[in-house]
């Protein structure tokens, strides 16, 4: 019926696609739309309120899952507005209080749940984020209401998004800005360095290399050291705030990866 209406000119092509997307939600599983655990930004419960606000500022996220001893033990969600209000009301709380003191209850959903059921649940319960769990109860990822809506209307971007990132932009002979999607082999060739097999195992891009070194998704300011170069994650891009560019600076010696909140 929708296709016939489109052929007759009663429904625009974009409207036809959107209607089909709505119907498809009933067959789309949460696991297909979620942000996987490897790309999650999270914070430990014992971090200070200041560290929580700093992470939010650097990552661009306003809601951050809070974990206890590991990522499979999510104890709640930290809302930036809650932390900011607390600091406004009591400036001393910035350093004296922990993130765990200002949590909201986390909602957990199975990865096998359909997207349309979850959308109804989120609208009914007025929640924006849910923790997705696998069949064993471990954290599989997170999903937001925007992830589901994006499946209907297409990718949602904002005024800060910029898809025109050069792969390599030399700033001077010892410094370059590179795309986080630059392949590690291309980086090694262009920057005259080498990686061990272990370093690049299961890694394709420079962004992936940084994530592997850190053991978590990189945010602006995250830094690692590779032979001859210091790599610093720069600005995020897109609604999921994935790192878009990396600053590469030539160094004399190698060191350890660092990532400070």
Automatic annotation (TrEMBL):
It is found in: Cell membrane. Its main location: membrane. Keywords: CBS domain, Cell membrane, Membrane, Repeat. The keyword Cell membrane applies. Residues 34-94, 102-159 form the CBS domain. It is a multi-pass membrane protein. InterPro entries: CBS_dom, CBS_dom_sf, FAD-bd_PCMH-like_sf, FAD-bd_PCMH_sub2, Ion_transp-like_CBS, Transptr-assoc_dom. One of its GO terms (molecular function) is flavin adenine dinucleotide binding. PROSITE patterns: CBS (PS51371). It holds the Pfam family CBS. GO terms for cellular component: plasma membrane. Belongs to the UPF0053 family. This is Unannotated protein. The lineage of its organism: unclassified sequences, metagenomes, ecological metagenomes.
């Amino acid at each position: 019926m929708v296709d016939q209406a489109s052929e007759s000119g009663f429904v625009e092509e974009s409207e036809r696609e959107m209607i089909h997307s709505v119907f498809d939600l009933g067959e789309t599983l949460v696991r297909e739309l979620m942000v996987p655990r490897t790309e999650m930004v999270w914070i430990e419960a014992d971090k200070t309120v200041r560290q929580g606000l700093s992470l939010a500022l650097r990552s661009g996220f306003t809601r951050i899952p809070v974990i206890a001893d590991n990522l499979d033990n999510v104890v709640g969600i930290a809302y930036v507005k809650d932390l900011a209000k607390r600091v406004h009301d009591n400036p001393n709380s910035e350093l004296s209080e922990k993130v765990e003191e200002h949590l909201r209850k986390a909602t957990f959903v199975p990865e096998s749940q359909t997207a349309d059921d979850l959308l109804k649940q989120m609208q009914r319960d007025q929640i924006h984020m849910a923790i997705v769990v696998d069949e064993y109860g471990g954290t599989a990822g997170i999903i937001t209401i925007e992830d589901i809506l994006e499946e209907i209307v297409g990718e949602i971007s904002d005024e800060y998004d910029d898809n025109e990132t050069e792969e390599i932009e030399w700033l001077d002979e010892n410094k370059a800005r590179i795309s986080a999607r630059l392949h590690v082999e291309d980086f090694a060739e262009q920057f005259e360095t080498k990686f061990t097999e272990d370093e690049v195992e299961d890694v394709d891009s420079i962004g992936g290399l940084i994530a592997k070194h850190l053991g978590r998704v990189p945010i602006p300011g995250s830094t690692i050291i590779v032979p001859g170069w210091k790599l610093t994650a720069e600005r995020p891009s897109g609604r999921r705030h994935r790192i878009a560019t990396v600053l590469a600076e030539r160094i004399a010696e190698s060191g350890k990866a660092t990532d400070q909140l």
